[in-house]
Design brief:
mainly alpha; 4 helices; 3 strands; elongated
Length: 82
């Protein structure tokens, strides 16, 4: 009998596999993350029948989104709130 578990988990080492793992990491709903993926290029990708992402890619994406929001807010404040 062959143990495929070791080779399967080694393939995905360091990755979040499936919406359940990704939602647990981000603490956002699956529907919200799928919307972010469609509209805001959230870093989740199909790998065969799985959706995968990495904590590093998610953290980087969250940082960039936060910076964009801050710049938009700062721009509104510079124009007097209009």
């Amino acid at each position: 009998m062959t143990d495929f578990t070791a080779s399967y988990t080694a393939t995905f080492a360091g990755l979040l596999v499936g919406w359940a793992e990704i939602t647990a990491y981000t603490r956002k709903s699956g529907r919200t993350l799928r919307r972010y993926r469609q509209l805001m290029e959230f870093p989740a990708f199909r790998f065969g029948r799985h959706v995968v992402s990495s904590p590093q890619m998610i953290d980087r994406w969250l940082f960039v989104i936060d910076q964009l929001k801050r710049n938009i807010t700062r721009g509104r404040n510079d124009r007097g709130g209009n």
